[in-house]
Amino acid sequence: MDEKLVYNVNVTAQDVLPTPEEIKRRVPLTDQAETTVLEGRHALERILDRKDHRVMVVVGPCSIHDPVAAMDYARRLKGIADEVGDTLFIVMRVYFEKPRTTTGWKGLINDPRMNDSFHIEEGLQLARKVLRDINELGLPAGTEALDPISPQYLGDLVTWSAIGARTAESQTHREMASGLSTPVGFKNATDGGLQVAINALLSVSRPHSFLGINQSGQVSVIRTKGNGYGHIVLRGGAKGPNYDSATIAVVEKELAKNRLPANIVVDCSHANSNKDHNLQPLVASDCAHQIMEGSRSIVGLMLESNINAGNQSIPADLKQLKYGVSVTDACIDWPTTEKLLREIRQKLKDVLPNRVPRTAEIRKISG
Fold first, then answer.
1. Is the pLDDT of residue 4 over 80?
2. pLDDT, average across residues 251-277
3. Structural domain total, the chain
4. In angstroms, rounded to a whole number, what is the distance separating the alpha carbons of residues 348 and 335?
5. What's 95's DSSP letter?
């Protein structure tokens, strides 16, 4: 019998990666980074439990492609995070994996050299170092959980996780999210529908058993207890934005019907800004006004921001890359970001402490 006829017909190579333990030995978790992660997760849990009046803001580049620029951005963000910290809890958006509708650059982990060479071992180690260095500044980090293996390498350095619109319906990602150590936001479907995210929240809160790897790299049956801090992220859809007060009311009703906490994060980019990065401040400002007018359910915002505005294609000669400019979705620049965060803080600083928790909200789903 010729196994070649039936086994791995379309596979050209199988390169063995270092185990999570090995990568962690190369880039160990430091005491300062651990403190940032633990305190950050605790703060987010308190926000979702309505024990902390602040609004979480996940802000940063659409994707990380230049570690030097990422740290430059992180140092700037840390300064403003300290300034607005009485009102806004800032988490840096640190995305290393990019889901592609067809083809394109898949992110720093998959292709760190940005030339389709796919040195994933190098990418995992580099991503871990970037996360550690950001956390050592005292700045918590959030990322998209796209590949179900990656959290074993990076999860100890992540404060908040997102499941994207393209993967929120995936059973694999729901199972993985049920075991993540972070609060996790599920985005609504790309068509704007809510049911995919609602189903995901119901699923992620329950125990699951699935295939994965352990810290030694062994294939294992992973058994989880469920993640009690799932929440919905509104990012708009094919029919346009979904952050307006009428839609927020509909989302609140759907969450209540499914006995889910009324915790809503609004993604100010993507379809909510009609894919125009210049409109993100308007979306954020509208959400701030809703909170000022009494909305209790909007607990967070997401912003795509970089040192410089817009985006760029990846050139053949990487020396031609513009510094601090996104290579994926277009971002607002740093001056706009800084101004916006200060404005939101000014609008909400006297309002948020008076937010009254809804006593009928249910932290855990029965059954």
1. no
2. 97
3. 1
4. 20
5. -
> Band of the pLDDT at 346, cuts 50, 70, 90?
very high
Strand pairing class (219-223; 209-213): antiparallel
Residue 324 lies in a domain: yes
Which CATH number covers residue 90?
3.20.20.70
Q: How far apart are CA 57 and CA 51, in angstroms?
A: 17
- The two three-digit tokens of residue 355, written as one number: 């937010």
Q: Give every CB contact of residue 39 below 8 A, 6+ residues apart in sequence.
A: 140
> Is the C-alpha dihedral spanning 130, 134, 78, 186 positive or negative?
positive
Q: Are 109 and 146 in contact (CB under 8 A)?
A: no
The answer to the question of residue 364 being in a domain is: no
**Domain-located, residue 4:** no
> Which domain, by its residues, includes 184?
14-345
Full DSSP string of 99-162? --SSSS---TTT-TTSSS---HHHHHHHHHHHHHHHHHTT--EEEE--STTTHHHHGGG-SEEE
In a domain, 366, yes or no: no
The mean per-residue pLDDT over the stretch 69-96 comes to 98
pLDDT confidence band for 308 (50 / 70 / 90): very high
Q: Look up residue 23 and give its amino acid.
A: I
The pLDDT tens digits of the residues spanning 108-119 come to 999 999 999 999
Q: CA separation (Å) from 122 to 21, 91, 249, 259, 328?
A: 15, 25, 46, 44, 21
294: Cα within 13 Å, side-chain hemisphere: 1
Other CB atoms within a 10 A radius of the CB of residue 8 amount to 10
d(CA 146, CA 150): 8
- By three-state DSSP, how is residue 298 classified? strand
- Supply the mean pLDDT for the chain: 94
**Whose CA is closest to 272, among 230, 300, 234?**
234
pTM of the model: 0.94
Of 44-58, 105-119, 287-301, the range with the lowest mean pLDDT is 105-119
Q: Which two tokens stand for residue 84?
A: 């607005």
In this prediction, residue 360 carries a pLDDT of: 39
Helices (H), 195-321: 195-204, 245-257, 280-292
- pLDDT of residue 54 exceeding 70, the answer is yes
